Amino acid sequence: MSKATFVILLYVALLNVAFGVAIQAAFKDDQSLKTNIISKSTSHKTVEPDFLTVRVPMRDCVELAVDYFLASPSGRYPTIVEITPYGRGIDRPNFRNEASYWIKNGYAFVIADARGTGDSDGEFVFFSNEGEDGYDLIEWIALQPWSNGRAGMRGASYSGENQWYTARERPPHLSCITPSATPARPMHEVPYDNGAFALSWSLNWIGSNLNIMKPRAVEPHSNPMTWLNHRPLRTLDVYAIGRELPLYRTFLDHPTYDDFWRKIGFIPNDFSKINIPTLAFTGWFDSTLTGTMEHYQNIRQFSSLKDDHFLIVGPYSHSTAPDGGYNFLTNEPVPNVGDIPVPENGLLPARNMTLQF
User: Fold this and answer.
1) In this predicted model, what pLDDT tens digit does every residue of 249-264 receive, in sequence order?
2) What's residue 254's pLDDT?
3) Measured between alpha carbons, how far is 40 from 139 in angstroms, rounded to an integer?
4) What does the pLDDT read at residue 51?
5) Are 155 and 112 spatial neighbours (Cβ–Cβ below 8 Å)?
6) CA 355 from centre of chain
7) Which of 90, 177, 217, 280 suits a disulfide with 163, CB 3.0-4.6 Å?
């Protein structure tokens, strides 16, 4: 197995980037909002990071809900950024753990609800606004008094793929990305699998994982085996979920690789624009294995920084790959993938490796 294909141990310095053009004057730091304290993390017991909730305007004046965590308001920090459609709420242990870990190690931590989800304004349109919103958030961070002007992104699945869209826009203050477990081609993975509509994925992902979307969806409640016999597919959302799901129907409206998918697809020239290091984790049992590998192969082939891109593949599922085989809620090792045991040497300290990256 060649070094260019899979790199297991890596320690790459975070690159400095030059200060870029300041973003629109509409971006400002709202210091009037109340600071809150989150509870002590069960995994990292030495830090109680303060956080401030702000609303950050994008270039079209749509505002994203953003939490940022600082060890001290008087410091200047490099920043770890995640934009998620899954809910940024501080009641979620994984984000409390992430905030505590990065604060303890000298970073600010920023997490935002993606456009149209959670407490953010606007409409959620599948992968359509992530690049510009990511650019605007990175550059807003660079203007804050607690920022040292450098930012890196983290996250997996949808929160990983939106890093590629952000990097494609080339925000001047983005230093690196760590996009794990990501799809790559909408007509070959999700929501279409090599042209066939991924029915179960579409309903489950929209109905379950995106229950913070507006209007809010609910958990699927009918027997999934009966979905296969329901026709037409367009009304299956009502049958399975109990209400219409606009995003599900949008997927069905575009059964071929039309302009809707071309807009969010990647071409070689996109990767040639990305001149920052990347690090990704995926798993042999990850449903987005092929997408994560494809992004890695393309960035290696077309980027000017051919030797600054790294991929780690292990005995992981989609949910455990980003954390090197550990449960992202508890930080405990996950001993099995299905009925297959994960060997001890299959577990990796993904957070520590990301920190060193």
Assistant:
1) 999 999 999 999 999 9
2) 96
3) 30
4) 84
5) no
6) 17
7) 177
CA 212/CA 227 separation, integer angstroms = 24
Helix (H) or strand (E) holding 280: strand 278-285
User: 10 Å Cβ neighbour count for 52?
Assistant: 18
Count of beta carbons in the 10 Å neighbourhood of residue 315: 20
Q: Is the pLDDT of residue 18 over 60?
A: no
71 contacts: CB under 8 Å, gap ≥ 6 = 47, 49, 77, 103, 104, 106
Cα angle vertex 192, ends 290, 136, to 5°? Answer: 75
Instruction: Specify whether the backbone of 105 is left (phi greater than 0), alpha (psi in -120 to 50) or beta.
Output: alpha
**Domain spans of the chain, in order of start:** 35-184+274-356, 192-261
CA distance 155 to 140: 19
- Looking at residue 198, what DSSP letter applies? -
> Residues 27, 274, 290, 255: is their CA dihedral positive or negative?
positive
Sequence-ordered list of residues with C-beta below 8 angstroms from that of 152, at least 6 positions apart, any chain: 14, 78, 79, 80, 81, 174, 175, 176, 177, 178
Number of other CB atoms surrounding residue 249 within 10 Å: 14
Nearest to 37 by CA among 46, 29, 47: 47
Model pLDDT, residue 244: 87
- The answer to whether 342 and 325 have CB atoms below 8 angstroms apart is yes
Which backbone phi and psi does 52 adopt, to 5 degrees? -120, 135
Q: Are 116 and 214 in contact (CB under 8 A)?
A: yes
Check: CB of residue 274 under 8 Å from CB of residue 267: no
Closest of 181, 156, 183, 151 to residue 167, by C-alpha: 151
Q: Confirm if 84 and 113 have CB atoms less than 8 A apart.
A: yes
Structure tokens at 161: 């793929």
What is the chain's length? 357
Are 67 and 51 spatial neighbours (Cβ–Cβ below 8 Å)? yes
Q: Read off φ and ψ for residue 175, nearest 5 degrees.
A: -95, -30
- CATH topology (fold) of 35-184+274-356: Rossmann fold (3.40.50)
- 343 upstream amide cis, omega within 30 of 0: no
